[in-house]
Amino acid sequence: MVDPMPLSDEVRHSFSSGFHVDLATILGAHPTPEGVSFAVWAPNADRVDVIGSWNDWHGEVDGLAPDDSGIWHGTIAGAAVGDGYKYRIRNRFDGSVREKADPVGFSFEEPPRTASLVADLSYRWGDDAWMAGRASANSLQSAMSIYEVHLGSWRYEPGGYRALAQQLADYLDETGFTHVELLPIMEHPFYGSWGYQTLGYFAPSRRYGPPTDFKYMVDTLHQRGYGVILDWVPSHFPLDESGLAQFDGTALYEHADPKLGFHPDWKSGIFNYDRHEVRSFLMSSAMFWLDEYHADGIRVDAVASMLYRDYSRNEGEWIPNEHGGRENYGAVRFLQRLNRSIYARHPDVQMIAEESTSWPGVSRPTDGGGLGFGMKWDMGWMHDTLQFLERDPIHRTHHLGEATFRMIYAFTENFVLPLSHDEVVHGKGSMVDKMPGDRWQQLANLRLLYGYQWAVPGKPLLFMGSEFAVSEEWNHEQELNWSLLEYDEHRGVKDLIFALNHLQQQEGALHLVDFEGDGFEWIAVDHERSMLVFERRAPGHRPVVVVLNLTPVPRPEYRIGVTEDGPWVELVNTDDERFGGSGTLNPRPVTAEAVSAGGRAHSIVITAPPLSAVLLAPDGPRPRPQEATGAMASTSDPATTSGTGAEPDPGDR
To answer: With the CA atoms of 618, 620, 625 and 627 taken in that order, what torsion angle do they form, in degrees rounded to the nearest 10?
Structure first.
């Protein structure tokens, strides 16, 4: 549980200097033996009262006292755990009064109600074993595959977080993903924003239960061996009357000038990253989810919108920086400090950026000018791959560059390969409906896509429902159509995902060297037959050769250059009947011959099924999974903390 900390000079200075990462210990509502201790930052107020259920929401009854950092604080004997409350704030310039929810509230009423709730966050965790060893699961060398979930529409469970915990863990057992990534569960007033219009930066949404129930969910997943990544939105916030906007009658959290402080796409406020206290607020929010809720990673949403002052703006709608450019230096400094602080305290987690441009060094150390993230979403891979596979196979031979271009830049960052919720909304259709051809070809193309996604360097991410070829575009108002799993074609795609996850975890070549060029080599880019062949490798592990047939025409007697002689075996074939394919397999080992191909002295001959991905390896014993990942991921491994960069600034902790 969070314990309140006295407002010492050191604490006030750290907050006012933009270095404090533990505001949850100072601000907010904390139960004490004497009642409830309240503290809120409102530097431009001349009076702050706490109104709540214990005083019938009356102002000028329970007032707080200010200090010189703009924090108002006090203990109220009549308040107790479970009480709703707000701050009644009177502006010192014009006398206007606002009633605001707590920016550091730990729980909220269920929307559309807007009050904060006094919460007891006490919880006895049972995930000690996971926390002690999670460095290996979260390492850059780990076999990480991410299942992206929107809790409200994954599966309806009246038991909320507690019921979903068991259901989700069971389903991860069935599909083999290593991590779940939750669309923002931080409290948000508008359900249709999917959580991306956050107001409760320290509170899990009450829609699914109280905060301790969310802890139970994370705890359960950890005890079952699964990591939990949380989406987090420091890029903007909604302008609801009860929220952060004009909090004390002034632009406190946001920029006053709408050219800096208003987001035209999302009609929301933009945080003022140049303000020290705002940096402390946001860094403390991120740290809170790692400290208090044992999150294993944070995916930072819409980083590009933070980095560029002209993001989604026309000429004349934005203000250049001091050098006349479009870079937002305040956001850059904030992100660097955020990542340094988090990795200094939690070197065994991952900070992941959703950044859609070519900003250099997003996942590179800050002491070299990078932003300091551990990984970055590869939006270019997603766009190019889907554009390519949505083409009629007859035309793909002319567009192989869309599939191969990614490898030119693949090792400039540590990439996650996302097929996320953004690709199955707003009229884009489901993943299977994007694919061309008749129903058989659509499903074969989808299986081909997943085989490629899991085989190419990077950590795969898949949005819920796509793993069993859900037919409908995602609708947040209804749960997934689980009845589709009664049909072989949908169950087959799900079985393929399990097989790919299992193979990724078994084969060191498919996960140990995801972010270095030594782990990948093209064998063939065959324009004539629309075939791609490449090799994945890692020191001390057998290579894996990946064969992609991008047309519905089978390719018998297809010769592939290999580096090792002896027998080769098929590991996964997406055309396997058990996955819904035609069953064109290579069931017996094929022996490498002393016939050169693709610049290699040896070669094998296989049948490449139509619209398929085939993964092969030399026959022989495989290393155990722990041999593939365990030694690579101590907390002192430089790769594990390669996003941390320089030592933290003084006061970060």
So the answer is: -100
**531 and 458, same structural domain?**
no
Contact call for residues 140 and 642 (beta carbons, < 8 A): yes
Give the amino acid at 385. Answer: T
Q: Is 354 a catalytic residue?
A: yes
Q: List the CATH number of the domain containing 92.
A: 2.60.40.10
- Rounded to the nearest integer, the mean pLDDT of the chain is 93
Q: Nearest to residue 265, comparing CAs of 231, 198, 205, 310?
A: 310
Residue 616 domain flag = yes
Q: Output the furthest CA–CA distance in the chain (Å, rounded).
A: 90
Q: Are 195 and 188 in contact (CB under 8 A)?
A: yes
**Three-state SS at 91:** strand
With beta carbons less than 8 A apart as the criterion, state whether 318 and 626 touch: no
All residues at 6 or more sequence positions from 164 whose CB lies less than 8 Å from its CB, including other chains: 151, 154, 155, 157, 208, 217
- β-pairing, 28-32 vs 35-41, is antiparallel
Q: Which domain holds residue 479?
A: 143-399+421-501
For residues 298 and 179, the answer to whether their CB atoms sit within 8 Å is no
What proportion of the chain, given as a percentage, has pLDDT over 90? 91
Q: Tell me the C-alpha to C-alpha distance, in Å, between residue 129 and each of 135, 165, 223, 224, 426.
A: 11, 18, 8, 11, 42
What angle do helix axes 160-175 and 488-506 make, rounded to 10 degrees?
A: 80
**Residues 489, 614 share a domain:** no
pLDDT digit string (tens) for 587-611?
A: 999 999 999 998 999 999 999 999 9
Q: How far is the first Cα of the chain from the last one, in angstroms, to the nearest whole number?
A: 18
Mark whether 329 and 295 lie in a shared domain.
yes
Q: Is the peptide bond before 112 cis (omega within 30 degrees of 0)?
A: yes
Give dist(CA 159, CA 151) in Å, integer.
12
Residues 491 and 589 in one domain: no
228-247 residue pLDDT tens = 999 999 999 999 999 999 99
SS3 436: coil
Give the CATH number of the domain where residue 339 resides: 3.20.20.80
- Whole-model pTM: value is 0.94
Measured in residues, the chain has a length of 653
Number of H helices, E strands in the chain: 17, 28
Whether the predicted pLDDT of 622 surpasses 60: no
Mean pLDDT across 429-449 = 97
The number of beta carbons lying within 10 Å of the beta carbon of residue 486 is 8
One of 62, 348, 354, 521 is an active-site residue; which one?
354
Claim to verify: residue 177 and residue 225 sit in the same structural domain:
yes
Nearest to residue 374, comparing CAs of 329, 409, 333, 340?
340
Marked catalytic residue, from 102, 231, 254, 301: 301
User: What sign does the dihedral 124-129-134-135 (CA atoms) show?
Assistant: positive
Q: What is the CA radius of gyration of the chain?
A: 26
Identify the burial level of 279 via C-beta atoms within 10 angstroms of its C-beta, where 0-12 means exposed, 13-18 middle and 19 or more buried.
buried
Same domain, 31 and 76: yes
